Amino acid sequence: MEKINQIKMKENRGLLTLLGVLILLIGCGGKNGNDLLLNTPPTASAVAIKMGKIAAEGDYIFSDKENDTEGNSLFQWYRAGDENGANVVKITNATQKIYTYTTEDKDKYLSFEVIPVQKDGKKGTAVKSQFIGKVTLADKEKASNIKLKFLDEYVYPANQIFRGTKIGGLSGIDYKDGTYYIVTDDFKKPRYYKVKINIENQKIRNVSFIEVVVFDKEQEYYAVNFLDLESIVFQNGNLIIASEGSIYGDKKPNIFIATTQGDFVSEYTIPNYFVKQARHNGIFESLTKSVTNQGVWCANELPLKSDGIEPEYPTTHSPLRFTYYDTNTKQATKEFVYELSPLPLPKKTGNDMNGVSDILEYQEDEFLVIERAFQGKNIVKIFKATIKENTTNLLGVNDLKTIDYVPMQKELVFDSETIEKELKNNKIDNIEGITFGENLPNGNKTIILISDDNFQKFGLQSNQFLLFELIES
């Protein structure tokens, strides 16, 4: 019995010792004690919205009793019909501190929600701001100082053979001194054509293919790269060409220079995130030379995986990167975000998509941007996109999901639905190229769009040439 009592006394002393340590930790108020027992969740207060002309910014005060630092707090935007929150909906993918307005927000009210998160991941309670509005889209809907006036359509016959090559897959176009340079996205036989487009009385009278240059895949650079050629510009006597590569095939996208005879000259150094985070068939679809002739701009067709999602309906967060490459150094020197529009219609199949298929700088830091969507039919919109003084330069930023930025401003200048009845078959096709053409007698510039018929692999498609007049005011 005495031995049992001794054991119980030792157990009691152990419990008392442990209890004493816990009391000491609590009583001392030290950091370790708080972490162990009193680590309260963080809080958010003074949650509010700063309304801008093209975007709104959420604001709040992060607090934590133990002075833990803030981690990756969570955000969500809501839209409602009035300041009391009538018919409130959660805005899909609106999960950043800065929210860029869409057409769905016109005359609506917005609320910003924050869930405070401390550095170790501990979450607090969600707090919403009041609903603020009305949202006005005056800056986005105002009349642009440019207009695209449709003049004519020309359809080149399908499946025509020119010097042993099938004419089709027309993916990029540029113009210089009466000649159009058109690249074809046929990786089996990568090539470009020299073409004459005869324009008379604001009509395309004929399109003549006069020369084809095939890139020799035995040349070292071409042999090790996958040439899915999507865009072409003529600059300083040479050609600059953008290739999507093959992400599934572990072949990187690239931008390279070639002679007009097709011989490799050099390549541009592209930021590494275009290699690591690209979506297959969603990378370098567009290219334009700068109006200063000191560089070229390139935009990706779909968001990088680290930046955003492929477009959804009715809202989306799908940022693209407009990257400027210096002609002399072949290095990227600046980069801005263009917000891709949502799908025009509710998504019905996995093939529904929207992306940027080509760009054209027409004034310094001002672009025409083709958004080409497919939802049972092609839907083409052209936006004017502008880099402003406050547009954020994001060159070198690997992940756009976790930072705040000001994107390029965009305005709609053309919608294919407005001309469908004037087109053969009453439809626009798979537009993938844009360029200036020869000037009209009145001095205005012409704009020419071309379509990629995919070599008829997905059904009947057209080699479509569309002529516009660029009217500036």
The total count of helices amounts to 5
Q: Kindly report the average pLDDT value.
A: 90
Give the N-to-C terminal Cα separation. Answer: 106 Å
Topology, number of strands: 30
Which fold name corresponds to the CATH topology of the largest domain? Tachylectin-2, Chain A
- CATH architecture descriptor name of the largest domain: 5 Propeller
Cα-atom radius of gyration: 29 Å
CATH superfamily of the largest domain: Glycosyl hydrolase domain, family 43
Provide a concise account of the structure shown.
This protein is mainly beta. Helices cover 10% and strands 42% of the residues.
What this model shows, in words?
With 473 residues, the chain is mainly β. It has two domains: 43-137, Immunoglobulin-like (Sandwich), CATH 2.60.40.2700; 146-472, Glycosyl hydrolase domain, family 43 (Tachylectin-2, Chain A). The protein is built from five helices and 30 strands. The protein has helices at residues 2-28, 31-37, 138-141, 220-224, 273-276, and strands at 43-51, 55-63, 74-80, 89-90, 98-100, 109-115, 127-128, 132-133, 146-156, 161-162, 165-166, 170-176, 179-184, 191-200, 203-214, 229-235, 238-243, 254-258, 264-267, 284-289, 295-300, 319-326, 332-339, 353-363, 366-374, 378-386, 409-415, 431-436, 445-451, 463-472. The strands form eight sheets. Strands 3, 4, 6, 7 and 8 form a five-stranded antiparallel sheet that branches. The relative contact order is 0.11. The model is unreliable at 1-10, 18-36 and 139-143 (pLDDT under 50).
